[in-house]
Amino acid sequence: MFFIDPSNILITISLLPIIGSLFLLTIPDNRIDLIKQSGLLISCITFILSLVLWIDFDKSSFTFQFVKKLSWIDSSNFYCYIGLDGISLFFVLLTTFLTPICILANWNHFPNRIKDYIIAFLVLETFMINVFCVMDLVLFYVFFESVLIPMFLIIGVWGSRARKIYAAYQLVVYTLFGSVFMLLAILVIYLQVGSTDYHVLLNAEFKGVKQIFLWLAFFIGFAIKMPMLPFHIWLPEAHVEAPTAGSVILAGILLKLGSYGFIRFSLTMFPEASVYFAPMMYTLGLLAVVYTSMTTIRQIDLKKIIAYSSVAHMGFVTLGIFSFNSYGLEGSIFIMISHGIVSSALFLCIGVVYDKYKTRVYKYYSNIVQLMPIYVTMLFVFILANLSLPGTASFIGEFLTLLGIVHINSVAAILLAIGAILGAVYSIWLFNRVSFGNPNVTYLTNLEDLNLREFSYLTPLLILTILLGIYPELVLDYVHASSTYILL
Description:
mainly alpha; two-stranded antiparallel ribbon; 2 strands; 74% helix
């Protein structure tokens, strides 16, 4: 046991990035190196502190740990709790792990506005951490929507192409539309229960038609955020226009907010409605896996290929969540974590070649293995993980999800397996098309292998991809108790 109260560490983690952003405001704009080093240091300290929570976490307990009561004002009527269970713990770890990588990814970009750029990421980190920490429905909604503000700026200001403003507005309009229904549902819940505290709501009963409508209201908000088919239209556009680090945080964390909401609120607060709508969720999940996998094969933009594959992986997550057994639920959680690592790594790999050649159209790339052997070796491992090869992190999640679904519906399991095969098709095709073939001497003349900075942020992702594939108990042992409690 550590001498410092872990609950105080959790508060520190939830506030340190935004306090650090305030510190960055005091640094003159011309001190670019100091700004970058300070931003990286703040994000690294946050990650180290989150590791302390992981070490001190009791994996045998299903209850929230490191719980702290926070009073908004000097009154017992205005307070909330923050805490972590075995599920939210790893999403906090993933958030704090990816943020320093995002800062490193665009280390030499935006020299005139680098301070604003790093501040936007630190503020975004604070909002994302608090989404997973707060144990109050209203505050969850506040932070759930607040992530749109810095993300809008990251895409709209620092995006890479001409349609970045359109993509930023599309992201906000889509997600705000769904969240209006969710906000109305929260008001209805408060009027009935008189509280928005999570543990109080777990003991509340919403019966009949009211539970159906409340579930649907939450469904719209969460489905757009995931995103599920057919609410996914905003995602490829946002990925294509976002800077590399924006795509990393979008795929690594923001896509998990909706599925986390389904697990945390839909399954626990509206269990009967979740069972009632399970066939619809299976249908949407299977369509996402099969349809978007086929759509991915037709793409020519490297980022769009990974973006559409993310929708397919979220289809796996959907089926796992609504399998209502521990195999499926734990598999879906593992997919979310592994996808946050693998998809982020693939976007970083695309960013490496885009920074060197300023195009993401795959036809301009061929036989880069001759010029970038270290890069291609790393890309190969991440591609194998994307197609869920045994021994990589993605395989464990998809295997558990299939195991959970086959107990419910064998036809759905077969279609899900077909989707996995299609995923292997476009993954192998992408790697083969970019890495091998006739050298494209007309276009690829200045490509160099990974530099030290690029190697330093890709290597931890590579290690985690293999480590979680070989030793999944690092996650599953902590998730099991909380997932079992949710299914009770």
